[in-house]
């Protein structure tokens, strides 16, 4: 009887979900990207982000592949690239991010930081975000690696096709300045 009552209450409450908190409201797809568009209920300003999930994430301390997420968003009017994991990836003082798009040259020791909780890494430096976005929009695969003295090695692979639409939507309120062309 308790089980039936619990299910009934859960079904009643599910109809009361705030559509502005739900991640499925106002969501469109581009490739495997999920692009969220909504207005902030406090300020009225547009809130946009693009999310990409993968199940191809590993850690030297985990036996099985784990989910990970890549998010493009604006925070305080600045573009941010955010990676989140379901396990600890290291600490800010002793970890390094590297990534590679398709067969392009890889980037190592990218300006980034690990947030408190040790499961989220962000790229906030404007030049580093610009370089990342420049390569992202014309790529189909992203491989990242985080090396950490206290947490081992973390890797993830994301299918990033469709990123141009994701970037345009997610970063419309905080455009990214294109990175300067590299000399070869």
Characterization of the model:
- This protein is of the alpha+beta class.
- The protein has a single domain (18-170), classed as Invasion associated locus B (IalB) protein (Immunoglobulin-like, Sandwich), CATH 2.60.40.1880.
- Helices cover 17% and strands 41% of the residues.
- It contains three helices and eleven strands.
- Strands 1, 2, 3, 4, 5, 6, 7, 8, 9, 10 and 11 form an eleven-stranded antiparallel β-sheet that branches.
- The model is unreliable at 3-23 (pLDDT under 50).
Write a brief structural summary.
The chain has 184 residues and is α+β, with helices and mostly antiparallel strands.
Indicate the CATH architecture. Answer: Sandwich
Order of helices and strands: HEEEEEEEEEHEEH
Q: How many DSSP E strands? A: 11
Q: Main beta sheet: strand number and arrangement? A: 11 strands, antiparallel
Number of domains: 1
CATH superfamily: Invasion associated locus B (IalB) protein
Q: Which regions have little confidence, pLDDT < 50, spanning 5+ residues?
A: 3-23
What is the average per-residue confidence, as pLDDT, rounded to a whole number? 84
Residues in β-strands, percent? 35-45%
- Helix-and-strand structural type: alpha+beta
CATH class term: Mainly Beta
* Estimated helix fraction: 10-25%
Ends distance: 72 Å
Radius of gyration: 18 Å
- In DSSP terms, counting alpha (H) and pi (I) runs of 4 or more, how many helices? 3
The dominant shape is: globular
CATH topology: Immunoglobulin-like
List the helices and strands and how they pair.
Layout: H1 2-14, E1 27-30, E2 33-39, E3 46-59, E4 66-75, E5 78-85, E6 95-101, E7 107-110, E8 113-114, E9 120-123, H2 126-136, E10 141-148, E11 152-159, H3 163-170
């Amino acid at each position: 009887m308790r089980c039936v009552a619990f299910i009934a209450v859960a079904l009643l409450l599910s109809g009361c979900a705030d559509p502005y908190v739900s991640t499925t409201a106002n969501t469109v797809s581009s490739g495997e990207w999920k692009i969220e568009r909504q207005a902030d209920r406090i300020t009225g300003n547009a809130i946009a982000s693009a999310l990409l999930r993968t199940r191809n994430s590993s850690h030297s301390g985990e036996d099985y592949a784990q989910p990970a997420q890549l998010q493009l968003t604006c925070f305080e009017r600045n573009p941010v690239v955010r990676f989140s994991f379901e396990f600890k990836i290291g600490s800010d003082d002793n970890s390094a991010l590297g990534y590679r798009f398709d067969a392009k040259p890889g980037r190592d020791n990218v300006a980034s930081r690990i947030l408190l909780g040790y499961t989220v890494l962000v790229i906030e430096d404007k030049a580093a975000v610009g370089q990342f976005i420049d390569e992202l929009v014309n790529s189909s695969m992203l491989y990242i690696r985080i090396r950490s003295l206290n947490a081992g090695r973390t890797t993830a692979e994301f299918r990033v096709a469709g990123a141009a639409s994701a970037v345009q939507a997610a970063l419309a309120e905080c455009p990214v300045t294109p990175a300067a062309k590299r000399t070869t």
